[in-house]
Design a protein that fits this description.
There is one protein chain. This protein is α+β, with helices and mostly antiparallel strands. It has 2 helices and 7 strands; from the N terminus they run βββββββαα. Strands 1, 2, 5, 6 and 7 form a 5-stranded mixed β-sheet that branches. The radius of gyration is 35 Å and the shape is rod-shaped.
Length: 180
């Protein structure tokens, strides 16, 4: 989430004293609503010594169109606006409580999805191991059968083990797919 601000450097003709930027929300004077957008007029009151100033207007809407920002100086008091800039500053947390809760929930879901994907990858590795094991057992069983030394009990146990493992992997894979 980003925090939008409008920077309005204001020049007072009297003296040329440049200080720290002045941050203000300003005061909303008027709102004109159009289809899909609105024109919001804010008034920023300045006090202090005359001179070059940087005024930062905060709490602008998050969906402001940077090219639509402009500023005018008051006709009384000799205020001249030199330029208007739009900038965003990243914030660590959104100021809106609802958005913070949604961000936390989103992070929890992303963590759960990452865990799910890691589990699925591990199941794929187990299945690949079973495939390799079968690639060893089948030729070995054929060789032993041709020599007449086949241990049927061991072959049955290996087959049952492989089948059970594949059933377990398939069931877990289905659970992970549903969770995802």
């Amino acid at each position: 989430m980003k925090f939008a601000t409008m920077t309005v450097p204001v020049f007072f003709f009297a003296s040329m004293v440049l200080g720290q930027p002045v941050e203000t929300k300003g005061r909303i004077e008027a709102v004109t609503v159009y289809r899909g957008q609105a024109l919001v007029t804010r008034t920023v009151e300045l006090s202090g010594k005359a001179g070059l100033r940087e005024i930062v207007v905060t709490d602008l809407p998050s969906r402001v169109l940077p090219g639509s920002l402009y500023a005018e100086g008051a006709t009384a008091g000799g205020v001249a606006v030199r330029s208007v800039q739009f900038r965003t500053r990243p914030v660590s947390q959104d100021v809106n409580e609802g958005v913070r809760k949604l961000d936390a929930e989103l992070q929890t879901l992303q963590d759960a999805l990452a865990t799910n994907q890691a589990s699925a990858q591990r199941l794929d590795e187990q299945k690949a191991y079973l495939d390799k094991m079968e690639m060893f057992v089948v030729p070995t069983a054929q060789t032993e059968m041709s020599k007449g030394v086949l241990n049927a009990e061991t072959l049955i146990k290996m087959s049952e083990y492989s089948g059970k493992q594949r059933d377990t992997i398939s069931a877990r894979r289905l659970e992970l797919a549903k969770e995802a």
